[in-house]
Amino acid sequence: MAHISILLDFRHIRSHADLLEKLSPAFSASRNDVVHFELNLNCIFLYSDWLLLVVCVNHYLKNQGSKVSGQFVDFKHDNDKAKYASRVNFFNLIGFDFKEKFQRWNPLGRFTEIKHFDQSNVREIFSDIMKILMINGVNEDMLTVLNFCLWELFDNTLNHSGEGFKYGSGSGYVCAQYFPSKREVRVIIADTGIGIHQALTTHPRSKYKTYSEREAVLNCINRGVTNSEGLGFGLWATAEMMRLNRGEMVIHSGSHSLLCGRDTRIHETNRWKGTYTFLKINTDVAVSHKDIFGEHSDQHDMYQEFKEDIFGKLEDLW
């Protein structure tokens, strides 16, 4: 029985990569191994998408039968970071008994708590994220593009992260938050499933069975790349949108991380079991669907059908 200790000192974490360097050893734990976490939340700034990755790892370990324990270092109950962590449901999801001494205001249009999603609740959570984008200045055309792209990211987790390629068998965690001073929305969708490489190379009808993990992650954003269970359209459109938006998209699966922005870069890094996708969206930089799909293509026709189908539903979110 192995013992793995993980120190998460958020005073020294500046990125998902920094955090994953500390979390990655947890994925080597087996059933009945002991994984002990020590957390220090006394940082300058704390993001819910960082906390979500900790929740994911905790959930993965418990599901596979590892023994998980933890403690907080220099913990102050009335600290702003502790209150924030509680408000986004971090403590509740890792099983820490934190007594809130503040009033919870409705987060509508500002942020979502860290939430687990599957087929049963994905549409409700998806609507909450779309409301954040609608309220905070995203124009109609870009709003519809984002609706298409974000739904594809959810769909990838639901339909490609589970074992056996069973439709709707996957699940994951998600959170989103708007930052007014930066005019940006941060969104992360994460799972601890089979990962892009296995999803792309082990399906019986896949054309990409010879891909290495690096090739699978690098090419997953190319138009038409799919394991045959979809059109290979969603990640390509999302990457194009983030490039035009001058935002940021990170896809991390297995031991490879792909950065999609003005440039596309991939590097080998610390292991994540499954896949997470992080988006940093500029709400004041508009993107037209024509810049992505063109005006005369099968993809444009598909997008137009999608737009006509969902735009009424966007108005119905209220």
Question: How would you explain this protein's 3D organization?
Answer:
- The protein has 318 residues and is an alpha/beta fold.
- The protein has 2 domains: 1-98, Trna Endonuclease, Chain: A, domain 1, CATH 3.40.1350; 110-318, Histidine kinase-like ATPase, C-terminal domain (Heat Shock Protein 90, 2-Layer Sandwich).
- The protein has helices spanning 16-23, 48-63, 80-87, 90-94, 122-135, 140-160, 195-201, 213-219, 234-245, 289-293, 298-316, and strands spanning 3-9, 34-40, 67-72, 115-117, 172-179, 184-191, 248-260, 264-282.
- Helix 1 packs parallel to helix 2 (48-63), helix 6 (140-160) packs across helix 9 (234-245) and helix 7 crosses helix 8.
Please bin the fraction of helical residues. 25-40%
* CATH fold description of the largest domain: Heat Shock Protein 90
Name given to the CATH homologous superfamily of the largest domain = Histidine kinase-like ATPase, C-terminal domain
Give the class from helix and strand content and strand pairing.
alpha/beta
**N-to-C order of helices and strands:** EHEHEHHEHHEEHHHEEHH
Total E-strand runs: 8
Task: Estimate the strand proportion.
Answer: 15-25%
